[in-house]
Amino acid sequence: MTEQPTPTVDDLREIAEQVWAAYLDPEGVRPFLVGEPGEPATAVSASVSLTGGWHGHVVVSCSSGAARHAAAAFLAMEAGEVSDEDMTDVMGELANIVGGNVKSMLPAATAVSLPHVVAGADNRFPTTRRICELSGTWLDEPFSISMWQGRGLAEVPAA
Amino acid sequence: MKILIADDSRVMRQIVIRTLRQAGFDGHEIVEAADGREARDAVLSENPDLVVSDWNMPEMTGIQVLGALRAAGNTVPFGFVTSECTPEMQNAAEAAGALFFIIKPFTPERFKEALSTVLG
């Protein structure tokens, strides 16, 4: 069987650096600090599904405070000015950007779904396993980006 | 010029508008579409001078919009701003007549590079 390249935490880190440089920290003063998130980053969870040549999900999770800061950064507004709709939109777009970039590392026939955002609960994906996760803090708030692969197709060790 | 920006994310439409301005392309009239079908309809009703479109949208994808427009004989300058960036997609975009393919996350410099021939 041909071994398919699978995205790693280093790939997620590279994508995250581009996202932070473009939208969340263009001035380079509010970096994403990779490490222990401190507490589970499950207040807002956005995901896109990948299907076709590769089956799984890309998930961006963070606290509601981090989601609010993210929306403020995207919209060039103050954190207190952003709406819940803005937060949902931005989180979905973050998952879309990460998922779209991950797609370029996967088999050609892989398709990316529209984003799905869950607030107030953890996003769960039965019959998958987490293959890599980039977690840490942003502005002292927990933040994580993870990839989940359909268990039946997973052929690489979990990260 | 009139520019149609198509993206199902309102926030991303705002960022595209802001980035156009940061890239030096200000003073243009902006029209927005929140999905592919709206984008196709807006091209026909608004007659924009340029379409800047997401790829993955509800109702119709960006490449379906471009295909439908070209099939109907519409030749509006059209380019993509998308997070998906496989060679197959870039080839499909080029074959369908897209002028540029900007990958998210993007910078004002990338906009300037991709759009300077269209917007001057």
What labels describe this entry?
heterodimer; A: 159 residues; alpha+beta; Chemotaxis protein chec; 7-stranded antiparallel sheet; 7 strands; 30% helix; B: 120 residues; alpha/beta; 5-stranded parallel sheet; 5 helices; globular
User: Largest inter-chain interface?
Assistant: A-B, 25 and 22 residues
| Main sheet properties of chain B | 5 strands, parallel
Counting H and I runs of at least 4 residues, what is the number of helices of chain A?
A: 3
Oligomer: heterodimer
Secondary-structure content class of chain A: alpha+beta
Helix percent of chain B reads 40-55%
The name CATH uses for the topology of chain A is: Chemotaxis protein chec
**How are the strands ordered across the major sheet of chain B?**
2-1-3-4-5
Question: Structural class, judged by helices and strands of chain B?
Answer: alpha/beta
Order of helices and strands of chain A: HEEEHHEEEE
> How many strand segments of chain A?
7
Radius of gyration of chain A: 15 Å
Low-confidence stretches of chain B: none
Uncertain stretches of chain A: none
> What is the residue-mean pLDDT of chain A, rounded to a whole number?
88
Roughly how many Å is the radius of gyration of chain B?
A: 13 Å
Strand-residue proportion of chain A: 25-35%
Q: What is the CA-CA span between the terminal residues of chain A? A: 22 Å
H/E series of chain B = EHEHEHEHEH
Provide the β-strand percentage band of chain B. 15-25%
